[in-house]
Structures are given as C-alpha cells and as structure tokens.
Amino acid sequence: MKGYSGKILHIDLKTRKTRVEEKPEEWYKLWIGGVSMASRLCWENIVPGCDPYSPENPVCIANGIFAGTPVPVGGKFGLASKSPLTGFLGDSLSGSWFSIALKRAGWDGVVLHNSSDTWVNVFIDDDRVDFLDATYLLGKGTFQTEEAIREKLGDDQVRSCTIGVCGEHMVRYANVTNDGRQAGRTGHGAVWASKKLKALSVRGTKGVTVADPKKLMELSFHISKEAQGKYTEKYRIYGTTTNMLDMDKIGLLPTRNYQDGTFEHVNLVSGQYLDAHHKVKVIACAQCPIACEQMSIVKTGPFAGAMTGVEYESLQANSSNLGISDMRACIQLLEIADHDGMDSMSMGVTISYAMECYEKGVLKKEDFACKQFPEGIEMNFGNGEAAVTLAKMIRDREGIGDLLAEGTRIACKKIDAERGTESWKWAMNIKGLECPGYDARALKTFSVGLATGTRGGCHNRSAAYDPDIKGEVNRFTIDETRGKVAAESEEYAAVYDTLPLCKFIRRCFTGKADRAGAWPAIAELINATTGWDFGYDDVDLIGIRAHTIKKAFNIREGWTATDDDLPWRWKNEPFTKGASAGYTVSDEELAYLKDIYYQAKGWTKDGLIPSDLLIKLGMPDVAEQIGVKGE
Amino acid sequence: MATSTSKYEYIVCDPAACIGCQLCEYVCSYTKTGEYNSYRSRIRVVRMDEVLISAIACRTCENAPCVVVCPRDALTQDSESGIIRVDSTKCDGCAWCIEACDFGAISINPATKLAEICDQCETVEGGPQCVLWCPKEALTLTNPDRQAQKTRRDLIKDSLEFPTKTKDPR
Lengths: 631, 170
Hints:
The complex is a heterodimer.
Chain A: E1 7-12, E2 18-22, H1 25-31, H2 34-45, E3 59-63, E4 76-82, E5 89-95, H3 97-105, E6 109-113, E7 120-125, E8 128-133, H4 142-153, E9 159-162, H5 165-168, E10 176-178, E11 181-183, H6 188-194, E12 197-203, H7 213-226, H8 233-237, H9 243-249, H10 271-277, E13 279-283, E14 293-297, E15 307-310, H11 312-318, H12 327-340, H13 344-359, H14 384-396, H15 401-404, H16 408-419, E16 429-430, E17 433-434, H17 444-452, H18 465-470, H19 482-498, H20 515-530, H21 536-556, H22 568-572, H23 587-601, H24 611-616, H25 620-626
Parallel strand pairs in A: 1-6, 7-12
Antiparallel strand pairs in A: 1-2, 3-4, 3-6, 4-5, 7-8, 9-12, 10-11, 13-14, 14-15, 16-17
Helix pairs in contact in A: 2-21, 7-20, 11-13, 12-14, 17-19, 17-23, 19-21, 19-23, 20-21
Chain B: E1 10-13, H1 23-33, E2 44-47, E3 53-56, H2 65-69, E4 75-77, E5 84-86, H3 96-100, E6 107-108, E7 115-116, H4 129-133, E8 139-142, H5 144-159
C-alpha cells in the first residue's frame, strides 16, 4: 500500500502498553484520513454513552493522506473524541508539522485509550513509545511546552500537540495546539486533561514515499504556483480578517453578542486596520504555499508586547462581538486564548454572553470580583481591559470564571436556575458549541446547515453560507431547494476535511472551486499518492461517508431531531439596523428547512439513517447498530 | 560570529519572506533520495518562534573549514563553483565537518550515517529545486556581490517614494 503505512497505533495511558492494529487497504479507501478516519476511529473505539471526561473516551488522531508530501496545504491531521461541550462527536482539524512527523514515524492514526494517573508526555519515537513525566511542563503555555519538550529531547524536529493552562484547568473549550495552530473547537484540551495527557510528541525519521512521485511533483508544483495568484489573493494579503468589512456590509457581523449585525467602529478592527498597524509577518502551516496567518503585535498601551496570529473568526468573536474597538485588546485576548490554549471563538462568545448578562442586570459588578479587582468589574460591552481580565479568570477558573469556563450552555442554565432569569435567550450556542461569525438570521440556507451540524455552531463543517453570501440563492428567503444546497455544501466541505486539504486551495486546481473543477484534480492527487484508481464519484463519496459516520456517532449517543436547533435569538429577534434588518429564522421555517434537508440526505423525517443507505455506503456494521427502516 | 567569505554562489533565504512551509525540505529530499524526509534535506528550515523563520543551506565558504577539517579527505571543493562534494567511499560519518561549519549547513544522513551537503542541484535540470519551488521566492541562488546589490535596491525601494514618472498618470 502506498501513501499509507497500514498501521494504527493504540496506546493505553494507564497500563502504558501499546498495540498495533493493521487495517486493510479497503478500510483506507472508505475512510481516507483526517476528520473521516478520526470519526471512524471514534465509532470503533469509544464506549457508547460514556462521559467525555471518562477513560472510555479515547483520543483519536488520523493523519492526512498527503501529509509529508509536497501536496500544497496537505499537512493536516484530524483529531476527534466525544466532545465535553456538545456530548456529541467533537472533530477538529489542525494544519501542522505534527502530521508530517507522524507520517514519517509510520503511523496512519493514533488512539490514546484510558487515563494516566500522573501527568504524561507521550513520545512516539518512530516505532517506539515512551511515557515521559510531564510534571515539569505544568503551568507552561502551549508554545512554551513544545519548546521545552524539544529542548529536553534535543531535537528540533520533534513535533508536539500540547495543552496549555486552560487545558490543565479543564476549561470546557480548551484546545490542543501544535506549532501555533490549533485543533481548536469542541474542547479537546479538556479531554486530554481528563487523561492527564499534557503533550503528545512525535519524531519521525523515515522517508515518505508515494505511488507516482513524478506525477505528484508535477501536480503539486502547478498548484503551488497557482496558489500565488488571484485565487488566493484574499488569504495572502489580509488573510480571512478581510471578512470583517464584508460581513459588516451585509449586516451579519456579530456585534455585542449578536444583538447587532453592524459595528460602528468596524474600521478600527478590520483586516485592513490590522495590516496597517499591527501586522509583523504572515506565516504558513506546514506544507502550505499560501500563508494566511497574520502575525500581529501590540506596540503601545497596557497590552504592549502581546503577539499572535489573527484571523476572522477569532477577531470578530473578540472585537465587534464584544463591542471592542481597540485592536490592541483584541490581540491581547487572542494571545491569551492561543498561548494558554482555549478556543478563541467559544471564549469570545462566552465573554459576550457575560457582558450582556451584566448590561441586562443579570450579573452585577460584584459577580466579577477577583483577586485583582476584589470589588468586581464593570463588564460593559466595549471594555477591553475588563474582557482581558475575564479571559484570565476563565483560564484560571477564578471567581465567575469557573462557571464561564463551562461554556454558555452550562453557564446560562446555572445562572438562570439561581436567579430566575432568562439569560439562555442570549446564550449563543448550538448543541453547546458557541456560534461562529456568520449570523444566520439572514443566511437562511446556512441556518439549516448550522442547526443540523454534527458538531454544533460551526462554520467549517457546513459551508452553506457561501451560496447565501455569493447570491447563488436568495439568503433572505427559503424555498424547496435549500435542503439539497445545505446537504451538498457540507458534503463538499467534508471532502476537504477528510483528505485533509485546506479549503483555501479550492480554486487553485483549475480556477473553479465547484465539484467539476476540483474533484478530478483531487482524484489525480489521490491516485498519484496511493496508486488507486479514484474518479469523480469516489471523491464525492468521501464527503458523504465522512458526514454520515459523524452523524451515525451522534445517533448512537442519543441524538434526536430536537437537538437540531438554533439559538433563541436567531429565531425571535430580528436586527433593527443594517442590510439584514428585520429577518429571523422562525420555528416554522426551521422545521421546514430541517424536513427538506433530511429528505435531501436520504434520511427519515426524524433525521435517522436508513440501513440500506448505510450498507450502500459500505458501513454494514453501522447499519446494524443505528440503521432504521427506510420510509 | 559566523562569516562566509564566499566568492561563489550559494542559496540564501530572506527571513522576511519565508513563511516556514518547509516545501524546500520535501523537494530537496525528494530530488536527492526519491523520498520526502526533512531529515534527508540539505536545506533546513529553522523556526525559532512563531515569526523568526528562515532556511539554511551550504554557503560555499572560500577555503571551506569543513573541507580543511575532514580527517579522511572525503570533502573536496570545486574550484569553479565552490560546491563541496562528499566522497561516500571515504566519509565515515565522524561529523567533524559539522563541528567546523559555522552555518549548521551539513547533516548526517540517518540511513547511511554519512555527511550530506547542498550541491545546488548541479546535475539537475533547472538548477536548485528548492529555489524553483519556493512559493514566496524567499530562496535565491546568489553570490555576495549580487546579494549586496539586492539589499541596496531593497533599501532604496523601502525608504524612498517611487519615482513620479512610473506612477499611473491617472
């Protein structure tokens, strides 16, 4: 088998024993890698119904098919477990040198079972696995931890996935970091901490070979050069931060916890402003010729010296969404999130929830008391210093930070129960995962993509905002086509998440990003790597299978159609100003959209998956467990 | 302090342009070995922290210390190109050359345990493959004169207004 080693490494953190599982080539043809293979490993290895923090919830890592080769943007891996935020599948991607080291070490996937009794740094050294004491790493930030491990092991090529202080404190939306990139969402850092796994390091010294290297070099060279042209201009110059002005213009920029869709100070927190005043350098993920990460620094004021990469989702969640117009405070907030290891999106939306609670009198100044400010903090929107203090309180689980570290869903439940309030109405999460920077009130196709999303409020799995924003469909209204549009867009995205390839490369194959433009080129890359004979339909099936296994996992965890919902605010409170004023997604509209979406997927009206569909997709064992009779 | 006294060509990396993607390492190792493996690359990317990134390959020093120091005379320097060649029948992987190199530009092949040094792809069509592939044109094959000229030009470009006559007349 080319492109794969055929081996999955199982590591038991408690007994400290390892086991090698050999998978047949047919298995790889079904699951490929990345999010799909990681989700499949979850299906095979997670005990159904387990507590996400229990030893029964293993950490599943699946490498990318192109990791370690020159295929542009192919240096990525998938990471999945049962999410402590959603109780469903938590699947993340990260672009990283970790994936390349893992490929060179000869492992297609790693499953970390059970829980360690003491803090551990697992070190995969080619074929050998060491369980190193991690006590000396405790309290260190994410990048610091990686550096300390490299120093201790004496090799720059050792790559690590680490958790920061937020992970150690089991902030429910803590993440896993490697080389400044994050498997960011759904709380992997907290799962790792529950296993006392501070870091997973890899050294791989073996070469990576492919079936047809000459062809792969030709294809890769072409894509890499195309990626320097107009197709990636947006990402190369301002990165995704350019969305700030675009989203404001169409009135969907999350502002003050999604109360507004336009921000009066947007020019002070735009990508263009960042570029002019804060940008130091752009950097790339492993194997990426685009380089979209805008490394930005604060030069003046109380946060001078703060530096981190800034992108749209993190930026909106911590600027307009908090009513903050001081870019310096935003960069400081993001540095805390990245350095100490928590999801900047969930963090921003949790802080904005708390700010709205403060402005509406649900939480008082004294509720925000901490060591630094024993009398409390005035947590108004726009108060950058207050937000920074609250982020640190969340990190350290100090005062109310302890509750807010649980995410908006758990926090609002507790606050409302204690105070008889209705703050759940502005707890902006879907299935427990905080919402992204695309307000769905006037992105009606995307709204059903978000509501039905297997991992909750995520803009990366459903890509249905694209046809909405581009005007391929009318974003303000619904019609019978939207179920299909939403289903196809998430299956399209799932192909990229499975290989994985970064979606920013999507136009560089042929100039056209649609299936006809991209699938044949992706099939060529797969064939040159593996020697298989994939065609258009095989590539298309990758995405359908990936999405199906995730959904199947959720069904096994007890998912029902009522879980596919939107935040109350999006269903009941229209914007009063801006280009999207006056719109909501009503309960009736959502119910209709869900119906036609389930139908487009070939599922039952309750959103369950018929057995014959699962069998057709090559998953008879899944059909046996969760398949239902078709309608 | 590391100094190169080269009169020859060598590959340099502009750290302001380098994005740290490491494509040069894959391309180098593939060109030399048919495999993708950073450990087999003769150009190496260094990431000191998130923004301090650059790549280093052989600087073809004049009277190269690695050549002088080799106890088995395995290393020779081409008098025309300055390229340093390793005779694999003589090299025994003692790594004295690595200690002598001010730039950390020599590595030991983990499979053969012998020294490997950038040869600017002298036998490969199209010249240095890393330069050809570098997506940000951060890598260039240059010599001290050309490098100085480029630095002077960049300095002037950055510090002075562009001349009026080349401006768009509108």
